[in-house]
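Journal club prep — side note

Before the paper discussion, L.F. wants everyone to see what a predicted structure for a comparable chain looks like in token form. Sequence:
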Amino acid sequence: MALTPASANPGHQQAQRRAKYGVNVAFALGAVIALALLMNWFAVWAFARLPDSARPWLRYDLTATRAYSLSDQTRQVLASAVFGDEPLELIGVYEGGTPQARAVDELLEEYAAVSAAVAVRRFEPESDAAALRHFHAELAQTLGQAGGNRPVEEAIAASRSELDRLNGRLDAVLSILNEATVALARGGAAEQRIGESLDQVAGGVVQMIDANEQAGTQVDATIDQPLPNLTQAQAALAQRLSVVAGSVGELSRWLQGNARNRRQAAAVRDAAIRAARQLEGVRASLDSARARLASVGVDPVYRRLRDAASRRAVVLVRRAGRLRAVNLDDMFVADERALDAMDPEDLTAAQTLPVRFLGEERLTGAIVSVSSDRPPLLVFVSLDGRPALGRGGTHNVVAERVRSAGFEVASYPVVSDAAATALNPAPVLEEGRRVVWFVPAAEASLPTDAAARAHLATILAERLRSGDGVLMTPGLRVGASVTAEDPLLALSENLGIGVDPGAVVLAPGVDEAGGPAAVNTFRVQTFAEHPVTKPLDGRSVWLDLAHPLDAGSANPLIALRADGMWIESDPPTDRPLSTATAEPYELTEEPIVVAAAKAQGSKWRGRFVVVADSLWSTDTVILNRQAGGNVELFTNLTYWLAGLDEAIAVTPRSQGVRRIGPMSDGGRRVAAWLAVAGWPVLALVAGTAVWAVRRRG
């Protein structure tokens, strides 16, 4: 029997070939995987080192809602604005590394990519402290160009010099007292006791000098800052001058008393006379310096922008000496619908609550305001004598929000008396300036002048014909006042929006004891499709005393919807409104319009809005209910009435449309590794599976 060599065995030869092919395939696959890993790593490495100006060209928004692209309104603003030689600067001052910071970074990059006239700068307060200090000095020069702070700066300098002069005189007084103390120490026991008393007085003078020097040093440190806090320096000096004036007065009285006391030792009388002469006129000089400080104030624009720029989370919008600040906290708001749906005991859900990013809305509004030569004006009208602004004002919250949006704010108390009118003239309006008039409801318990209402109606009609905007919030009228003719309501009717001031919208609810009661508070979360209300998606607007409107041809903005809702046409005056009841035929399932807007008509060039709720924009409702949606509605209405539609940038970022939730830092790292190594590993797995299948076959 012949032996067959192993090499001649066909099965053995096939196994060798398979092994060779397997090694070749494994080597080739390993090379491909290594090359893919190297290419992916190089792409990530190179992108991280690209200059900021190049990154936007490599970013593409593939989302269906264009959630990471600037809106058409913003693009229109950037395309139509004439920046000239002065570029538009967007300066971010905030720490990086957080999801919020990344969202703002990407937004600023989008602005720079869309317009070559936009320059973006970024400072991190900790790592860029020196550069930020230099920028603050540059900013102080920009804010100081208008010269609005010169009076307070001069008053601070004069008060600071007054403290130095006072210390010079106190040093002379101290020297005189010390000489007398030394002379008395050489005498007998009685003289030595008097000398000890004199030494205590000298110690008080030393404390006064030290306190003055400390206050002066603190004021100097404040003034020497690149962006000085003039308000703080002014307050510190005023407080020190007040304290030292009292101390100097007490010292002067003590010296004069001892100078007149013939029983006092001669050395003491002589020292008191000489020291009192040093303090002559000092109290008057201190009082004069205090009065000068009190008579001037820091420019409110400087104070507001200085406070904003000094924060560690802000984006500044600057052009040609004009500056606006947008806080990062104002760019992010919680989605209130998600908040309502959340389990209050679910802490994990609370930490991952989706937020709406309003960065583009805020920044575009600021860009519009710095791009105009004269800021638009919002006039708060008062009919009942109550101040709308300032101490005791009813609308300080919305006024401050509108100021931050670039509006100038003024108040106008309307009266019919000729003498009083001369003391409270209407604001001077330049030709072509955008102006919005806000007419809040008069307090029902306060008397109002019918002639003043007629006078105001005449002014508003004239201004509407000239192109101004008007926002009116009529109040509830009961009893005889319902039938009285109201020129303001007649103007609204003439413009196409009818108001029923004697009726109020109610719905069934429960009282504090759990019993049935009528409720007049509505939380609105669904709005009409209008440029004013569209950005309010996910927000809530609170209405506490709404009246029905006949919108006619006007555009409805807010319509109330609730089961069992009705219009109470005869609200009770002798008992709480919660006791009102409705007959079955009074109930309605139809929405009740309570806010409407009217654009230009044939006779009226201006825009007109009625929000038939007297409380919705007041500080009381906004602060008690944390009604941020009410503030947003007021701001958007002001923009729209001023003809600044483009400032209401409705962006997909703010509309709560989410396909994937926000990623944590750990999730981003996992995604980055998957992007670098995921495809090569997948190819390795697929190749291994194919090889295993073929081998088995």
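L.F.'s comment for the group: Residues 652-661 have pLDDT under 50 and may be disordered. Keep this in mind when we get to the figures.
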